[in-house]
């Protein structure tokens, strides 16, 4: 037994040193020196690849900086090192969500809630993802759990705000308004909750209460386009176009192509007798609708060209198919499916570098598509070595 004590003491000292080093990284972060913190965390991991705490912190910092690949790699390794850690699964889920990989994020949040049912933040995150996935009843279960865990504290304001959305989806507006009132009571500076509270009160025909909430939202968040639009449109609805105009103008400056704002601003200006300005706004609205119509027409034509390309490809006319896909993609560069077809045709005609580049762009546009990532990896593996 006595022979083992020095080794045990050495290990304990090493663990304390590693913990202290991660604390130093936290201190650097608190002082705003992110670059030094990242460098320190990388040195810690190089010295001890099994340091999950360092990987968790480094992955989260890199996520905030938009460094997807290394962020996900560090957090995934932390999960591998601590497979039962709710904190690790939740951190990986938050990173995946920030990079718009919704379904993988959902899986991690689910694992976090199973690993530690009392981990409130994981329930909040899972509730948010479920809401965005069109599953408000399931979202409500997790949000109710989070609210129960957090109690009447400022931290419970956000899950209450989300819970109100689930109530609103179910048509239970009074319950939604009650949750939002509680949210702004606990967090009086919660702009989005004030704005949604105004909307709920409006649906409940409480005009004075709605206007008061909208005014509070704008007072707290002058740069919130939705809050400005809602206040302006409410002033207009209540017959106060002069008060509506500045808020609608601010909303339009923040969101220059919002059709609802353009409509309301045009109406408010016209009611105030500012006909020339109203006509200018109407012209902007007409131009916006023409552009949107052109985009829709281009999208329809692109689908038609894509389908023609698919038929040509089936009949073995690969080069003709390639040109159809190219023309379709020029019309609708946002369509990931067309881009993938174009990439596949390029690969089949031996244009590996360009085909792989198009697949990379498709993955960038649809980062949550695991099948697409596998297709890219397979193409890279099969490509002739340069």
Report on this structure:
This protein is mainly α and 386 residues long. Among the domains are: 98 residues, Tetratricopeptide repeat domain (Serine Threonine Protein Phosphatase 5, Tetratricopeptide repeat), CATH 1.25.40.10; 79 residues, Alpha Horseshoe (Serine Threonine Protein Phosphatase 5, Tetratricopeptide repeat), CATH 1.25.40. Helix content is 80%, strand content 0%. Helix 5 packs antiparallel against helix 6 and helix 13 runs antiparallel to helix 14. The relative contact order is 0.04.
Give the class-level CATH name of the domain at 19-116: Mainly Alpha
By CATH, the superfamily of the domain at 19-116 comes out as: Tetratricopeptide repeat domain
Mean pLDDT: 91
The fold-level CATH name of the domain at 19-116 is Serine Threonine Protein Phosphatase 5, Tetratricopeptide repeat
| CATH architectural designation of the domain at 19-116 | Alpha Horseshoe
| Low-confidence runs of at least 5 consecutive residues | 1-18
**Structure summary, number of beta strands:** 0
The structural class is: mainly alpha
Shape: globular
End-to-end distance, in Å? Answer: 59 Å
Helix content: over 70%
Features:
80% helix, mainly alpha, globular, single chain, Serine Threonine Protein Phosphatase 5, Tetratricopeptide repeat, 386 residues
Brief overview, please?
The protein has 386 residues and is an all-alpha fold. It contains 20 helices and no strands. 80% of the residues lie in helices and 0% in strands.
List the helices and strands and how they pair.
Elements: H1 5-30, H2 34-47, H3 52-64, H4 68-81, H5 86-98, H6 102-115, H7 120-132, H8 136-150, H9 157-169, H10 173-186, H11 191-203, H12 207-220, H13 225-237, H14 241-254, H15 259-271, H16 275-314, H17 318-331, H18 336-348, H19 352-365, H20 370-382
Helix pairs in contact: 1-2, 2-3, 3-4, 3-5, 4-5, 5-6, 5-7, 6-7, 7-8, 7-9, 8-9, 9-10, 10-11, 11-12, 12-13, 13-14, 13-15, 14-15, 15-16, 16-17, 17-18, 18-19, 19-20
């Amino acid at each position: 037994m006595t022979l083992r004590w020095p080794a045990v003491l050495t290990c304990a000292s090493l663990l304390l040193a590693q913990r202290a080093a991660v604390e130093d990284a936290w201190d650097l972060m608190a002082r705003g020196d992110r670059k030094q913190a990242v460098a320190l965390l990388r040195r810690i991991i190089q010295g001890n690849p099994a340091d999950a705490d360092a990987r968790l912190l480094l992955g989260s910092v890199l996520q905030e900086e938009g460094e997807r690949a290394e962020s996900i790699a560090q957090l995934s390794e932390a999960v591998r090192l601590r497979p039962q850690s709710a904190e690790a699964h939740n951190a990986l889920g938050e990173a995946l969500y920030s990079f718009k990989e919704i379904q993988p994020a959902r899986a991690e949040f689910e694992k976090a809630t199973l690993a530690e049912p009392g981990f409130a933040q994981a329930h909040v995150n899972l509730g948010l993802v479920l809401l965005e996935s069109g599953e408000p009843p399931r979202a409500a279960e997790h949000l109710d759990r989070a609210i129960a865990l957090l109690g009447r504290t400022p931290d419970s304001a956000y899950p209450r705000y989300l819970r109100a959305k689930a109530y609103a989806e179910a048509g239970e507006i009074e319950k939604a308004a009650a949750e939002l009132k509680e949210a702004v009571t606990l967090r009086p500076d919660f702009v989005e909750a004030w704005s949604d509270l105004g909307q709920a009160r409006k649906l409940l025909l409480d005009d004075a209460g709605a206007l008061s909430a909208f005014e509070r939202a704008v007072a707290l968040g002058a740069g919130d386009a939705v809050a400005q639009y809602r206040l302006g449109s409410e002033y207009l609805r209540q017959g106060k176009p002069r008060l509506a105009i500045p808020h609608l103008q601010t909303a339009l400056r923040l969101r220059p192509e919002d059709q609802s704002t353009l409509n309301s601003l045009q109406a408010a200006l016209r009611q105030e007798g500012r006909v020339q300005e109203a006509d200018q706004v109407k012209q902007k609205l007409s131009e916006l609708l023409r552009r949107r119509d052109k985009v829709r027409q281009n999208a329809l034509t692109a689908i038609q060209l894509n389908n023609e390309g698919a038929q040509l490809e089936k009949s073995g006319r690969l080069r003709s198919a390639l040109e159809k896909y190219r023309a379709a993609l020029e019309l609708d560069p946002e369509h990931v499916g067309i881009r993938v077809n174009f990439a596949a045709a390029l690969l089949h005609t031996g244009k590996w570098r360009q085909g792989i580049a198009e697949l990379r762009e498709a993955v960038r546009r649809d980062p949550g598509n695991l099948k697409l990532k596998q297709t890219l990896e397979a193409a890279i593996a099969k490509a002739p070595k340069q």
